[in-house]
Amino acid sequence: MMDLKRRYVIPGDVIATGQMRPEQNVYQDGDRMISTCVGISEVFENAVRVIPLTGVYVPKTNDLVIGKVIGTSPLSWEFDINSCFIGFLPAQDVFGRDYSPTKDELRQRLNIGDLVAARVANFDRSRDPLLTVQDRDLGRIDSGELIEIAPSKVPRLIGKRGSMIQTIEMATRAMITIGQNGWVVVSCEDSEGLLKAVEAVKMVDALAHTPNLTERVKSMLGVPEGDNNDTTND
Amino acid sequence: MTDDGIRCDGRRVDQLRNITIKAGVLKNADGSAYIEFGKNKILAGVFGPRDVHPKHMANQDTGILRCRYHMSPFSVTERKNPAPSRREIEISKVLKEALQPALILKDFPRTVVDVFVEVLQADGGSRCAALDAAAVALADAGIPMRDLVSACAAGKVEDRIVLDINNEEDQEGQADMPVAIMPNIGKVTLMQLDGILTPDEYKTCLQTAIGGCRSVYEIQRKALVEKYFEGGAH
Predict the structure, then answer these.
(1) CA-based nearest distance B205→chain A, Å
(2) Structural domain of residue B85, as residue ranges?
(3) In this model, does residue B213 exceed pLDDT 50?
(4) pLDDT confidence band for A224 (50 / 70 / 90)
(5) Distance between CA A16 and CA A50 in Å, rounded?
(6) A109, B44, B100, B223: most buried, per Cβ within 10 A?
(7) Looking at residue B232, what is its pLDDT?
(8) Is pLDDT at B201 greater than 60 in this prediction?
(9) Alpha helices by DSSP H, chain B
(10) Are residues A109 and A166 in the same domain?
(11) Do A37 and B234 touch (CB under 8 A)?
């Protein structure tokens, strides 16, 4: 990763010039690559992208999200997924193929206000995101504490190959479900562990851009040095 | 104005008023900025992208932008009726049209970005100051933008072209020309002219205003860097 050139950019900043592929949050003006948001630019050999530091969650197919039921229609649930779009979960996904709007009652399975871990099955610009709960570990979340963090900081909370989240989970024995939309559910049998885990998640949210964050989280949680070698700020 | 070009408030002909901008001042808005442009004090708040209400305004192909420019009753010496006046409706429209070219809303179909601008204290050139604050607030909200929008006025007072005219000069002067540009792309998004100029004066006036916009851009940039990179490395 050493050949990566990183830089802080704001909208309108020219990141690079020449024949390159504009990726995430970059647009092309002639042969100039221009950032479209406040963030950190990364220049690869032939591509440029900007990791945003602010902004709303834009659903992507296959993302794990945590949603809150905000309503039902005869054939589906509607979810608030912390985005500008409403997530739809078809009733057949939960009831199976023989779902009948006259026979089954949607609210018996998922009522308004319930939290659900779901995966984005499909999303394109012509329709609102379609969710699914047909996978391992998906479905209603019965217990835990909901924390809202900035969607742009989710990758930092997960860490390199899950290092950050593993550190927190191991130190507090908490179960942490992270939605790509910035909603995080922490559950723990031991109330002290729960409080510590919540504090750690909030700390990552507040200090996501600072170096040596894993170390700082570890010292906050009281983890002895050297348990995990990964301290790079990714 | 004195013979050696010192204006009624002690500035030179090519000198801006003192400008300070702070990004992210409102917790409940998705993005916000506060600007002090001389004696102008203006708050801008941005919401969105979010669901469009009323629904018929939604565009299936792209997100839309709405702006509201409003002057507080206490923003001027005599109480101002808080109902939108003819002038406020005009400026709302002008702000919207000046910001629109900078925004990339095609990835957010069926949504709206709302920009609310509240003038707390007015002292001439408030539409430019409002535009500067709105641009920073939009960047703070993480709305994809081609470039920031920087605005500044120039005008003609006592037969001389001066930069950034204040309220007094606006009342007594011969011409007022607010200009907004996208500084990195080099495009003008707003140009109004109230008064009469010769073609030569027009050219100088426009160049003076653009020069002012570029100085304003540096201040806008500083505000964003301060918030997101803690005044740090660039």
Answers:
(1) 25
(2) 19-229
(3) yes
(4) confident
(5) 12
(6) B44
(7) 43
(8) yes
(9) 86-99, 126-140, 167-172, 199-229
(10) no
(11) no
DSSP SS3 for A209: coil
CB contact under 8 A, B147 and A85: no
Q: Is the pLDDT of residue A45 over 90?
A: no
- Asked whether the bond before A129 is cis by omega within 30 degrees of 0, the reply is no
- What domain range is A198 assigned to? 145-221
Cα gap B129→B37, rounded to integer Å: 6
Q: Is B43 within 8 Å of B27 (Cβ atoms)?
A: no
Q: Which residues of B are less than 8 Å from A8 in CB distance?
A: 225, 228-229, 232-234
pLDDT confidence band for B11 (50 / 70 / 90): very high
B92 lies in a domain?
yes
> Pick from A12, A36, A38: which is nearest to B228 by CB?
A38
Domain boundary among A141, A161, A185: A141
The reply to whether B99 falls in a domain is yes
Quick one: which H or E segment has residue A176? Answer: strand A175-178
**Which pLDDT does position B151 carry in this prediction?**
97
- How far is B173 from B167, CA to CA, in rounded Å? 10
Which one of B51, B107, B184 has the shortest CB-CB distance to A34? Answer: B184
Domain assignment present for residue A132? The answer is yes
Looking at residue A12, its pLDDT comes to 93
Q: Which residues of B touch A85 (CB under 8 A)?
A: 110-111
Residue A233 lies in a domain: no
The count of domains in chain A is: 3
CA separation for the pair A137, A25 (Å, rounded): 32
Predicted confidence (pLDDT) at residue B203 exceeds the cutoff of 50: yes
pTM of structure = 0.89
Query: Nearest CB to A10: which of B30, B102, B139?
Result: B139
**A232 falls within a domain:** no
Here the ipTM equals: 0.87
Residue at B14 is within a domain = no
Strand order in the sheet with A32-35: A14-17, A32-35, A26-29
pLDDT in tens, B159-177: 999 999 999 999 999 999 9
Q: What is the CATH number of the domain that holds B40?
A: 3.30.230.70
The CATH number covering residue A181 comes to 3.30.1370.10
Report yes or no on A39 lying in a domain: yes
User: Average pLDDT in the B171-189 region?
Assistant: 95
Counting the structural domains of chain B, the total is 1
Contacts of A52 in chain B (CB under 8 A): 142
Note the pLDDT of residue A152: 85
Lookup result for tokens 């002057």: B71
